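Lab meeting minutes (informal)
Scribe: AK
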Amino acid sequence: VLKTVYDKMVTEAGADVMFHSFVCAVDMKDDRNVDAVIVANKSGLTAYKAKVYIDCSGDADIAAWAGNEMANGDGKDDVQPSTHCFVITNINEDAYNKGESLYGGNPKSAIHDIVADAEFTIPDTHLCVGLIGPGTLGFNAGHIWNVDPTDPESVTKGILRGREMAREFFVALKKYRPDIFANAYLVETAPTVGSRESRRIIGDYIFTTEDYFARRSFPDEIGRNNYFIDIHKSAEELTTMKGHSDDRFERYKSGESHGIPYRCLCPRDLDNVLVAGRTISTDRITQGSTRVMPCCLVEGEAAGMAAAFCLGDDEINIHKVDTQKLRRRLTEEGAYLPRLDTDTF
């Protein structure tokens, strides 16, 4: 249903959609401006030109290929582990609702027995699960390390491991929670692994850990965020760190949040490219918070609106957008931007 809602919103707004297509290269007009993006699909290779490009590739592909300076993972090319999500259906929903929680943070969850069971190769207790339909559970479970989202061979290996891990979870859950899974079926694995981290652009501003813990506001902020810093354990930390990875950093209290500066969407070395999503300009630690979907949503809306503003200028330059005008328009569209009237921070 959500897909059809989005389809209608996008097409009624006048956008042209092209599925099953990948940007695979860029042509540069000069050192700071992209002239065209090369797209691969069943038609072969096609060049598309625009005045402004918005990179929502998830890995900042356009910005990276155009030559903007990038950061990657922890600086040593180690990124957070990936997860291959899956769906199990025909469960006993009554037993699921009344029984012990399967969540990995629950010390009584069956996942602890599963990890200790030599029959299975599931490496850790990461298990998030929820009902997504009648008798149907969606799983965000298990970790796959050493998956580089920018390397297709690495991603392929991750998918192969993820599919096998989903099968192991299914068999193990049948073994340890037959009250829920005795008659269940593993019906779907995700089309690819879920990647938590890869490249980050170096932008006009790098949002820092200090900013996060100061709950800092910014005159050019285009959204607010209050998600906790969610950095999943490395393979080494899995054996050396006690407790849950969620407990490493202080969490915001109810009502607290920080601003997301427009400048974090602006690649420092490019004038006609904006970036939205988990690859905006932050340090490694705060990316563990800003990588989540609500942030990606508000960044995407702001980037699209800022790009439209650029089209009315004689000189296309994303760094010169009037951010107060941008904030006013975002607020008119329902964005949550406190202090809009004062703009003193």
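Next up, CB showed the second protein from the same session:
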Amino acid sequence: MKSYTYFPGCSSEATAVGLDISTKAIAEVLGMELKELEDWNCCGSTPYGSLDETESIVIAARNLALAEKTGLDLVTPCSSCFVTLNKARIHMMEKPQLKEKVNAALAAANLEYKGTVKVRLLIEALMSDITTKQISGKVKKPLKGLKVAPYTGCQEVRPRFGFDHPENPVALDDIVTAVGADVVPYPSKCKCCGGSAVIAEEGLTLELMYRLLDDAAKNGAECIVTPCPLCQMNLDAYQGKVNAKYNTKFNLPVLFVTQLIGVAVGLKADQLGLKKNIVSPNKVLAKYL
């Protein structure tokens, strides 16, 4: 049993409940002990740094300081949380004066960041510690015949925080293969979905989503799988608006990679939060559940 400090992130309590539920469910099956970080706070997410970089790093560093006390690696399923926490760690490592300023603020809460905790993304831990071989060994219901379009998203592989290739990431492909499904190659697998720009520029972002969905569908995908809560929300929640704007009929379920693994290892729909998905995966997954 491999133990980690678990940082669920805010999305896990709102738009990505299914990610949190399925992460905890597959962790138990795969031999990962996730100990939720006590009294964690929002990492600040990526936009905060553009408003006040130092303050945003203090917010992130509080979580890092708390995690250091556990002596375990800090693992998060959220790519945005991963980038934010890891960015704070690297900035403080490279800028000693910034670290001093951050620790001066943390001292008000009797905390100190020393720089020893390792920040990791869940999918990287799955690939490095658990391995696809072990995942494959736990499969009870191979997803044979299911055509899956892997979609990594931008943040976890760019610009310098990722463990996978920034232009041709393969981790998701390997996991899809490990659970018995068919990887659908499509040119847009590394294109941006628009991210949080959907709030300010919905029209532009819908176009980006349309291109992704159209590309995946034309190449035969029955569903899309992603590790990113923001990518999942955009492609899932806005699929209806894309259809309305472009007169299309996309009906592509957008699954978290943890949900896909969960189905293959024999977990039930309610154990994976599949009812939280907006585009229902019931038809696509019927013969596996």
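CB comment: The chain has a mean pLDDT of 94.
No objections, moving on.
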